[in-house]
Design brief:
With 361 residues, this protein is an alpha/beta fold. It is built from 11 helices and 19 strands. β18, α11 and β19 form a beta-alpha-beta unit. The protein binds nicotinamide-adenine-dinucleotide and zinc ion (2 copies).
Length: 361
């Protein structure tokens, strides 16, 4: 089968090849034929090394498809079911799972660093990003990594729910718990940032400021719910006109850089919540002083995978989509083929595109 392989961090191009095979389906595994998969910034971060993965690796974690085989002990899905890939499967037994934070479960994350589920070129092992690797035609995941979805939800929309939507809308609804009538600033208007904007709109925020250096993103941000849009250097003026100089109730960072966290910090009012959604590098220090951390009264919240329980929220977001409350079509800037992934990576790096969705043949 076909897939896109990264041999080494920093490689110019992915190796798109057609000789991949999969490990056999174990008793608690599910084999999924991927039907649609997105290009998220986290995939770029695997290519650049910002997000460390075992190598060689097939990127891709935002995906949806059809179940084609299940292990003997699997009861949650059966062949023919439509599923969304969950890139943090929850084991159900660890302290995070038992404590009600399944998005923090590390059980399968750790396993994915030693368990190479692909082979190529004969018998050379290859890993899947975060245990997934949706930039391949088929994947094998633990049953907790394939969540059944209403077959009326198109695969492309289901794929978006697999990462961007859940991360962004979840950050607003689950992590920040944005209150009706509040003011929200969102730093970074890619696929995830636009999802935060949609979550803030759904939560009843009355002022939603989109912040992105690329003006091409401003119209799109407004289309999905932003009430205003500025470049980072216009932020101080916007704080003045939109919040009377106080700052916003919530500031979301959706870029993955310490500089953007500082922009979100600056945008947030005294006592407000600064929500970190972007996935930054291990050596990218955030320059906050101990004085500021206490006396500005701001809360820094981490929002990994939208602070979600995907068993509850994948169907919840699918329902919102079906009810016309989530605009997923505006999030898709191009439908592409697996063979276009190198161009898609270059396009996302340039910043001018939103979600590019690979629709498998
Ligand atoms: N928390 C999570 O669980 C999770 C899940 C998925 C993605 N992410 C991360 O979220 C971030 C965003 O992902 P995406 O797919 O939307 O990315 P993207 O590349 O589509 O969009 C990033 C946007 O940020 C803008 N930007 C760049 N520098 C900026 C700055 N200094 N100030 C304001 N805007 C700036 C770019 O112009 C672009 O529009 C990435 O770091 C990604 O890895 C986190
Ligand atoms: Zn667990
Ligand atoms: Zn993602």
């Amino acid at each position: 089968m076909r897939g896109a392989l990264l041999h080494a961090v920093g490689d110019d191009k992915l190796d798109i090849r057609d000789d991949f095979t999969l490990t056999p389906v174990g008793p608690t595994d599910v084999r999924v034929k991927i039907r649609a998969t997105g290009v998220c910034h986290s995939d770029l971060s695997v290519l650049s090394g910002v997000l460390p993965m075992p190598l060689p690796v097939i990127p891709g974690h935002e995906g949806a498809g059809e179940v084609v085989e299940v292990g003997d002990h699997v009861t949650s899905v059966q062949p023919g079911d439509h599923v969304i890939i969950n890139w943090t499967p929850a084991c159900g037994d660890c302290p995070s799972c038992v404590g009600g934070q399944p998005h923090l479960c590390m059980t399968f994350v750790m396993k994915s660093f030693t368990d190479a589920r692909f082979r190529y070129g004969g018998d050379t092992p290859a890993f899947g990003m975060a245990g997934c690797g949706t930039w391949a035609e088929e994947i094998v995941v633990p049953w907790q990594g394939a969540i059944k979805v209403d077959p009326e939800v198109p695969y492309e929309a289901a794929a978006l729910i697999g990462c961007g939507i859940t991360t962004g809308v979840g950050a607003a609804i689950n992590t920040a718990k944005v209150r009706p009538g509040s003011t929200v600033a969102v730093v970074g208007c890619g696929g995830v940032g636009l999802s935060v904007i949609q979550g803030a709109r759904l939560s009843g925020a009355t002022t939603i400021l989109a912040i992105d250096p690329l003006e091409s993103k401003h119209e799109l941000a407004k289309k999905v719910g932003a009430t205003h849009a500025v470049t980072p250097d216009q932020l101080m003026d916007a704080i003045g006109t939109l919040t009377g100089g106080q700052g916003f109730d919530y500031g979301f960072e959706v870029v993955g850089k310490s500089a953007a966290i500082m922009t979100a910090w600056q945008a947030t009012r005294r006592g407000g919540d600064v929500v970190v959604v972007g996935a930054g590098a291990m050596d990218d220090m955030v320059p906050l002083t101990a004085f500021n951390l206490l006396f500005e009264g701001k809360n820094i919240l981490s929002s990994l995978y939208g602070g979600t329980d995907v068993r509850r929220d994948f169907p919840f977001f699918a329902g919102l989509y079906k009810a016309g409350k989530l605009d997923l079509e505006s999030m898709i800037s191009a439908r592409i083929k697996l063979s276009d992934l190198n161009d898609a990576v270059a396009a996302l790096k340039s910043g001018e595109v939103l979600r590019q969705i690979v629709v498998m043949d």
